[in-house]
Amino acid sequence: MTSTSAKLQKANDFILKAEEEEKKKNYAEALRLYTQGIDYFVHLTRYDYKEGKPKEVLQGKCAEYLERAEIIKKYLKKQKNGSQKDEAQPPAKSNEDSDNESEDPEKKKLVNQLESAIVMEKPNVKWSDVAGLEGAKEALKEAVILPIKFPHLFTGRRKPWKGILLYGPPGTGKSYLAKAVATEASNSTFFSVSSSDLVSKWLGESEKLVKNLFEMGRQHKPSIIFIDEIDSLCSTRSDQESESARRIKTEFLVQMQGVGNDNDGVLVVGATNIPWVLDSGIRRRFEKRIYIPLPEVNGRLDIFKLNVRDTSHTLTESDFKILAEGTEGFSGADIAVLVQDALMQPVRKVQTATHFKKVSGKCPTDPTLISYDLLTPCSPGDPEALEMSWIDVPGNKLLEPEFTMADIRLSMKKAKPTDEKGLVQLSF
C-alpha cells in the first residue's frame, strides 16, 4: 500500500511536470498532469490529513492548482470551438507568488525538493510513550506546546526558546523525543531534515537549500525544524574543510539569528551524540541545551514495559524490576534490541521443536474464538507429544509458546550496552 509521504511526493511530481509542459505550451498534457496531481491532493486531504496545519497547506495548494487547471481548460475549449484567435496561450498566473516563481524557477525547484522534509504523517508517538526524560519533556513542552496554546503567556520580555539542542549518548531517545514533539504539536508544521536534504553536489545550491528551509519555516509558522545528527552539517570550522561546507555553516548562522530574519514562531531543534564537535557559533545559537542521559533504573523498567507491551507474557512486576536493575549502562535503544531478540525466542522454539502437542487456546486467525485443536512445541518426553516439525503444522493451528523471563535471560547473556562511555555526562 502506498504510504502518505509517497502519495505526497507523487502529487508534487505531477504538478512539477504539469508546469514544465505548460511552459512548453503543451496545454492538453499540462491539464492532464494538473488533474492527476489535484486528485492526489484531494485524496490526501480527505483520507490522510483530516485536520490541522498540514491539511490547510494542502488545501491551499489544491485551490491554486485547480484555478490554473480551470484557466487552461477554458482556453482549450475556446481553441477547439475556433473562438481563440487573438490569444496564443492562456493568461499567465496573476498572483504575486506565481510571478516570483516564474522569475526564479530555480527557487521553486529547491522548495519542491524540501517539501519532502515536511512531516505530514504524524509519527503517533505520545509523551507517555517516552520513558523517563521528564526534564527534557518539560523543556520541549515549554518551548513548543505552551506558546501555541497560551500565546499571551509569552509577551514582553518572556519569549519561547528559538533553538533547542538535544545531546547525549547514542540510543537515549533524542530522535524519539522529536517524534513525540511532531505528534503533540498538532497545529505546527514539522520539518525533519538531515544532511542528505541540505547537501548538494552543485556549487552554491546547499546554502540556498538552507535558506529556503528557513523561509518555508517562516511561511508555515508556527513551525519546528528538526535537524538530526546536526554535527554532520555544522562541525567546527577549520582551514582544511571545503568552501562548500564553510558556506553551509555560515548560512545556518545567518538564518538562525542573522540581521533581518524574524524567526518568531520558528523553533529549531538539533540532535547530536557529539556536541563538542559543533561549531561554537552554531552551538551558541541553541539557547537551550538538554542533556539526554542513559536511563535510570525506573526509566529502564518503563522501557522494558513499553517494549513488551501487549505481547502475551508471564512477566511479573518483580521480574521487570530485576531486569531494570540488571541492565545498568544500557540505553533505551539497547533495551529495545534486547527485548526484540528475546521476543524471537518463542519463534526459535517453534523452529527447533521436534515434537508438538494438542492444546486449546485463542484462534490465531480470530482471537474472539477458542480452538481446541491447536499445536504447540513440547518436550519429547511429554505423554501427549507428537513427533513432527513446524513444517507439518498448519498455518492456522499453531499456538505460540508464551514469552517468559527465561527468554529474556537467554538474550541477556549476549547483550551488551553499545556505549560504555555514555555513563559519563558530556560537558562542553
From TrEMBL:
It comes from the Eukaryota. Residues 79-108 are annotated as: Disordered. The keyword Nucleotide-binding applies. GO terms for molecular function: ATP binding; ATP hydrolysis activity. Gene3D superfamilies: 1.10.8.60, P-loop containing nucleotide triphosphate hydrolases (3.40.50.300), Phosphotransferase system, lactose/cellobiose-type IIA subunit (1.20.58.80). It is a peripheral membrane protein. Pfam families: AAA (PF00004), AAA_lid_3 (PF17862), MIT (PF04212), Vps4_C (PF09336). The keyword Nucleotide-binding applies. GO terms for cellular component: endosome membrane. Residues 160-296 form the AAA+ ATPase domain. It is found in: Endosome membrane. Keywords: ATP-binding, Endosome, Membrane, Nucleotide-binding. One of its GO terms (biological process) is vacuole organization. Transmembrane segments: none annotated. InterPro entries: AAA+_ATPase (IPR003593), AAA_lid_3 (IPR041569), ATPase_AAA_core (IPR003959), MIT_dom (IPR007330), MIT_dom_sf (IPR036181), MT-severing_AAA_ATPase (IPR050304), P-loop_NTPase (IPR027417), Spast_Vps4_C (IPR015415). Belongs to the AAA ATPase family. This is Vacuolar protein sorting-associated protein 4B. It comes from Nephila pilipes (Giant wood spider).
